[in-house]
Amino acid sequence: MDESVLAIDIGATNTKFCHVDRFGEFLETPRRRPTPYPCTPARLIEMLVERIMASDRPRVGVGFPGEFRDGRVIRPGNLSRPGGVATEKDPVLDEQWRGFGLQAALRDATHRDVRVVNDATLAALGSCDGRGVELVLTLGTGLGLALCVDGTMKSVRDVGAEVFVDGKTYDQSVGERARAQDEERWDELLLLAVKNFAKEFGAATVHLAGGNARRVAPTLFSGLPFHVVVNGNQASLRGAAKLFYD
Q1: Cβ atoms within 10 Å, residue 196
Q2: Nearest-5° angle of CA 169, CA 176, CA 154?
Q3: Same fold, 5-121 and 128-237
Q4: I need a labelling partner for 222 at 20 to 30 A (CA). Which of 7, 62, 109, 140 fits?
Q5: DSSP structure class, residue 244
């Protein structure tokens, strides 16, 4: 019996795909496609269904880059920006996403066992070891956050749109555009964000995942009273297996 999983990590810039085994190990080199914009539910589903149907795996684990709960989109994050993160949110597009049953729509269109969670939650499943309070920050186009306590995922708010410093949000302050403009300042703000969230949630370990985690020097966090682990860009794809296998 084939126990492998098609892992899909939807990002605000690119969407990654990879077949993984039941333990989250890669069975191939991950592939990526640009996330389509304007990203309506129908347009995203069209892209995902094409990739799912090209795979013969009956199980599909998906990470969604916004607040997601019980199979439905609560807030779409940067997907409500018609031209990507550099553009303003479109209220009409935002409303199309809110409450949208993405998981059911993908199941109905593909007749596969599709399970969808927030992308930071998926990264946490691929990063956390189940001991104590673990916080996961995903560093990419924006900032995502997930919390795991003794191996159990806890519901947390979507922090990307919260104001952080100088009137700018976390997405604006520690997202990719900020890093590209001033990497030294990005390091400073990332360190501050890690400290603040670790204190707020009482984390013993903070995991960094997402595309920009590879740009972080572990020495940036020397001397902190908690452990910081740099997991890299593939944690979400590895985590997809845990949606099906403990």
Answers
A1: 12
A2: 60
A3: yes
A4: 140
A5: T
Torsion of CA 241, 144, 43, 68, to 10 degrees: 70
Long-range (24+ apart) CB contacts under 8 A made by 178-183 are 179/212, 179/215, 183/215
User: Quick one: pLDDT at residue 211?
Assistant: 87
Nearest to 79 by CA among 32, 109, 45: 45
Round the CA-based radius of gyration of the chain to a whole number and report it: 17
Ordered by start, the domain boundaries in the chain are 5-121, 128-237
- The Cα–Cα gap between 110 and 116 comes to 14
End-to-end CA distance of the chain: 18
| Res. 166: pLDDT tops 90 | yes
User: Which numeric CATH code is attached to 128-237?
Assistant: 3.30.420.40
Helices (H), the chain: 41-54, 91-97, 102-110, 119-125, 170-174, 176-181, 183-201, 235-239
| CB-based contact 72:99 (threshold 8 Å) | yes
Can you tell me the mean pLDDT for 190-201? 97
DSSP 3-state percent helix, strand, coil across the chain (nearest 5) = 35, 30, 35
CATH number for the domain whose boundaries are 5-121: 3.30.420.40
Q: How confident is the model at residue 205 (pLDDT cuts 50, 70, 90)?
A: very high
Higher pLDDT, 58 or 157: 58
Instruction: Report the pLDDT value the prediction gives residue 102, as an integer from 0 to 100.
Output: 98
Positive/negative CA dihedral, 199, 200, 206, 209 = negative
Residue 137 to residues 17, 70, 111, 184: CA-CA distances in angstroms? 21, 21, 33, 19
